[in-house]
Here is the input.
Amino acid sequence: MRKKNEYELKPATSKNTNIKKAKDWESQLPTTPSRTSPRWVSPVKPKDPPVDLSKLERIEFNGTTFYLLYSRGTVSPLSESEFETLCADIADRTTVLVPIVLDECYIIIDGEHRLRAAKKAGLKQVPVQVRPGLTEQEKWQMAEDLNLHRRHLTPAQIQEMITENREKLPEMALKLRQEGNSLRQIGETLGVSHQQVQNLITAVNNLTPELPEQVKGKDGKKYPTKKPVIQVNTTKELQRAITACQAAGAENLPNRSIELKRVERIARETERNRLRQQEACDFKSGQVELLLGDFNIRGQEIQDNSIDLFFTDPPYDQASLILWEKLGAFANRVLKPGGLFVSYSGCLYLNQIYPMLDKHLSYLWTAAINHSGAKKKIYPVGMNQAWKPILIYYKQPKDIYWPTIPDMVSGGESKEHHDWEQSVGEALHYITAFCPRNGVLLDPMMGSGTSLIAGLQSGLGLKCIGIEMDKATFIKTEQRINTFLAEKNDSAIDK
Ligand SMILES: C[S@@+](CC[C@H](N)C(=O)[O-])C[C@H]1O[C@@H](n2cnc3c(N)ncnc32)[C@H](O)[C@@H]1O
Here is the structure.
């Protein structure tokens, strides 16, 4: 009989909105000999700012520093009364309507006055458009154009300005359109109706047979090129957007309006491609052992009857179904008698997964992760998925050595380390319940190593073994584990 754990179960804490996607897997990678020293992965080189930021004037807003450059020289300062009107307007609406426009170094291209007014009005958030990949010339030009047309002017002043710049309006309308603005937005900016904007654009298109920046579409026709635009609403999102833009590189972003999550996905893929060029080999540090390669091969190095808890998370797509039978057989060989197999799974192919596992292990239960946040639409079955199964099997004999635990928990969503990253809280719930003190935990498809982090966090003195076949994922996981161990060490020293 196993000893019951001498600790209390920790309830899963954060919210869960985990979403997974099917993916083709890389072929197995060659492995190299084991190393024990920690290896740090060099961070993505941040984009060099065009100037020394420390020399620029700045605006601190809700913990974020914005720099002033392009608005200098292109924006004439508002008079005190104009600024007060703007502040009163923003305070009245408790929001800023027109986004602040920034480059990827937090330098304001447009919206300095709006940001100052928002700060004065005590707003906590402002809408921001991040415009990565613009040349210096484009940024200065944009600052000038937008200032000319977005300044907080009285209707009379707008009318006067439009009259003065009447001959420039069609070009301005076209430029704003190419930047991804709607007809209504452009109309608001230029002080004309959206139908008039359409007429202006048609006029300039007819007048200008060869527009300066064009791309050829699939249909062979030419379309105006755009630049990437990322629209965010909070300073936290802004920080994510800038980090992701810098990691992805503006040249890897589509030239149109893109969602923050997509920029982050592109950033992760760019990072993975970079990591794939690096050398990688097995890793060992203290109680952690990471093996690079396919579990079907590297798993052969794991001794029979040596694992207390087999905790994993295979890909959920149809092509990966074949893995389940192999996982079942592998778990049956390496688990200690009475040891548990716990695995995340999708719902779509459960009818095929159960029989494969049944061949090698004994069924105990199907627990659930509650997706407390955004739900995922599963189109082939017309379902909005709100939960995810956790399949629990055991290797004979049956031994219920843990105290009764809830079979539904909610985890938090994080995709910082892996596109299919799970929450540490969920893993901790099962690991603290099912792993005996000083036991051995194995995740043969560890991804970003969430289960191993949970194993280390459990305070049970576990030996944690992980296997991963994707080199980029492996390197990032090694880095994550190293960081975790270093922080743990630091806090131990501080005490
Ligand atoms: C769903 S992800 C795991 C995510 C993980 N739970 C996390 O929180 O990051 C599955 C992982 O299994 C890896 N994988 C797929 N087939 C594998 C195999 N045959 N051997 C080892 N790793 C494999 C993939 O590269 C991927 O990183």
